[in-house]
Design a protein that fits this description.
Layout lengths: L7 H10 L16 H8 L6 H13 L6 H6 L7 E6 L2 E10 L4 H11 L5 H8 L13 E5 L4 H7 L3 H13 L7 E3 L11 H7 L4 E3 L7 E8 L4 H18 L7 H4 L2 E9 L5
Parallel strand pairs: 2-7, 3-6, 6-7
Antiparallel strand pairs: 1-2, 4-5
Helix pairs in contact: 6-8
């Protein structure tokens, strides 16, 4: 039996019982557009039973935002890329911009453990486009690792909690095979150059991924520096993991990396 995600009962309460919009708390929540929902959730079903169950779930899904709040947010900004090696870049797709009101919502959840903001963040997660060709048999989701010291100080791991809902949404398992070194400082408030320097040798591969498709996930991709450093660690380790003495096709053997985040940048910039 699949374990429930953290605070799942509270999310069910928000989605099925308390039908008030999780952003304005005034209007009644509403389901997302059916065509958009189907493209994310029905395209990977393999038989009529799965399709029927998915459609049944949509029928009873009351949504988490009202239509006017959902439509007031700019979803899926253009993906951007960061270089991870010569001739190789990492695409990063965010669900929305790091602007008001979601900036305040993310901060409240991340820094103050405000679980009343979780349903709204789950709605944001559901706006991320499902990666083409990825499924539970060939892909894993890698949440941005945190350090032991930061986990003790904060008391919970917000990115892992959010990634559990992404895993449930995409039906792709999580993988925690990368550790973060404890001697780095928080990225918040640093310039891009300082972020890159701070992340030198910040990640260590603790086990080989079970598949070649790895979907990196973080809450906020301000400059993409953390995702870039994480991807570089995986990229540098991938050739030795797949190559043999007789195999010289390095590029074809590397992991397929892409990255996703709740928010990125500013719509006005």
């Amino acid at each position: 039996m699949q374990r429930l995600a953290p605070y799942q009962s509270g999310l069910w309460l928000a989605e099925y019982i308390n039908l008030c919009c999780q952003l304005c708390h005034v209007y009644r929540s509403a389901p997302q557009d059916l065509a958009s929902w189907q493209s994310n959730n029905l395209s990977h079903t393999h038989n009529s039973t799965q399709s029927f169950l998915s459609r049944l779930h949509y029928k009873f899904n009351k949504g988490l935002l009202c239509s006017r709040c959902h439509d007031s947010i700019a979803w899926r900004p253009t993906a951007f890329t960061v270089d991870i090696a010569a001739g190789t870049s990492l695409p990063i797709q965010a669900a929305t911009y790091y602007d008001y009101p979601l900036r305040q919502v993310i901060r409240a959840f991340k820094h103050h453990e405000d679980m009343t903001k979780l349903p709204l963040l789950v709605h944001v997660i559901r706006q991320l486009p499902r990666p083409t060709g990825c499924h539970s048999g060939n892909s894993v989701i890698l949440p941005m690792p945190t350090t032991a010291n930061r986990l003790v100080k904060r008391g919970f791991d917000p990115v892992t909690i959010l990634s559990l809902y992404l895993s449930k949404h995409w039906q792709i398992p999580l993988w925690h095979g990368v550790k973060r070194v404890d001697d780095t400082i928080s990225q918040q408030g640093l310039t891009r150059a300082e972020r890159l320097t701070n992340l030198d040798n910040a990640f260590v591969l603790s086990e080989l991924p079970p598949v070649k498709r790895i979907l990196l996930f973080d809450d906020v991709a301000t400059t993409g520096a953390s995702l870039q450093a994480l991807a570089r660690t995986l990229y540098q380790q991938s050739a030795p993991a797949f190559l043999t003495d007789q195999d010289s096709t390095t590029q074809s053997k590397r992991y397929h990396l892409s990255a996703y985040a709740l928010a990125h940048g500013n719509m006005g910039k």
